[in-house]
Design goal:
single chain; 7% strand; three-stranded antiparallel β-sheet; 10 strands
């Protein structure tokens, strides 16, 4: 073989190798259904079918803190959202029955936490979970004719309770204690779920103009150049920031903001730069220095970032996030499909990723 032919052969081999590396890096494969669904059903479901918060059981030391296999309204809300997004009517009906059986109290508020037996030892709700659940119920009522009127009635009862009891100074607030009648002055911005509020207003469960009020709240909130505030005081009308920023909170607010004409461009640009530089997104940042405050990664961050990428019409970034996110899945061979670390996991670290990949799959199927 002469030297010229050898050189061309080497160039060809190197070119094929480079192309293969790029293909492997950029390849995109999604499982349908996601193995995370089986993980949740097989390992994160209690005997009464409520969803456990943690994989590992642990005794409850404080009724105001979640522990072990206790169940949260947050979890059932995310599960209901997944069922609607996946167009799984059977799964939704099962979740809806659990809501009515265990979470919905006689006063028509949703208890934010249950023990493993399905009993509530708290007398408070969680506004963001309530909005998420009501939003899912209204979508289900519009999506499937079966049981539509009954679902609308249930949603209306919950919204009426929120409007009558979970307000301060004309604003919804984080919670209400139905035992002592106390509500705080604080509205956490992660709870301003504009899609749910819009659905409630469209179904005439809220006074006209309510949606616009909360849309304006998100449109007019300040930022520090990248990050959003944590809370809004409904009496003083002041916003407050945390010194340590939780990316889960930031991404939830950013996702809600996409319903307005205020795009979360600064946060997206920051996250893209961080991901390109670090090849990961740490779960928390120091607000002033924009540096990671922790070394760990949260699967929820990636699930929510995928949702944001989909909402922003950015499939390339969404795929990059997804490919990285699933490297965190099934690190523990005993729990395939689960985001399990050191033998334990939190339910939202499985449900937010599940929602993210489901919305991404729907988005990609359109093209």
């Amino acid at each position: 073989m002469n030297r010229k032919r050898l050189v061309w052969l080497v160039i060809l081999v190197v070119g094929i190798a480079a192309a293969w590396i790029i293909f492997m890096k950029e390849r995109f494969v999604m499982n349908d259904p996601s193995p995370t669904v089986s993980f949740v059903q097989n390992h994160m479901t209690n005997s009464n079918d409520t969803l456990a918060t943690y994989l590992k059981d642990a005794p409850s030391q404080d009724p105001n803190m979640v522990a072990g296999r206790e169940a949260l309204s947050e979890s059932i809300g995310l599960w209901m959202q997944y069922a609607v997004t996946k167009n799984d009517q059977v799964l939704f009906e099962e979740s809806y029955d659990l809501l009515k059986t265990y979470f919905l109290m006689p006063q028509n508020y949703i208890a934010w936490k249950l023990d493993t037996e399905g009993k509530s030892h708290v007398t408070t709700n969680a506004l963001g979970d309530d909005f998420r659940i009501v939003g899912a119920i209204l979508k289900a009522a519009d999506q499937w004719e079966q049981g539509r009127e009954e679902k609308l009635a249930t949603a209306n009862h919950i919204v009426r309770t929120l409007t009558q009891s979970v307000q301060t100074n004309g604003y919804y607030v984080d919670f209400h204690d139905f035992a002592n009648g106390h509500s705080p002055d604080i509205l956490s911005l992660v709870y301003v779920d504009l899609q749910a509020l819009q659905a409630m207003e469209e179904h005439e469960m809220l006074e006209p103009g309510t949606y616009t009020k909360y849309e304006s709240l998100l449109k007019s909130m300040p930022d520090d150049g990248v990050f959003y505030p944590k809370t809004f005081n409904v009496v003083t009308k002041k916003y407050t920031y945390d010194d340590t920023v939780n990316l889960i909170d930031q991404l939830i607010v950013a996702n809600h903001s996409t319903a307005t004409d205020r795009r979360p461009d600064k946060l997206i640009a920051f996250l893209k730069k961080e991901f390109d530089t670090r090849h990961q997104l740490p779960g928390q940042y120091k607000r002033t220095g924009r540096t990671p405050a922790v070394s760990y990664e949260s699967p929820s961050v990636y699930g929510l970032a995928i949702l944001l990428a989909v909402q922003s019409g950015d499939p390339k970034w969404a795929k990059q996030l997804y490919n990285h996110m699933i490297t965190l899945r099934s690190l523990d061979n005993a729990y395939p499909g689960g985001y399990v670390f050191d033998g334990n996991t939190h339910m939202f670290d499985n449900l937010f990723p599940l929602l993210g990949e489901t919305e991404l799959q729907k988005f990609l199927n359109k093209y």
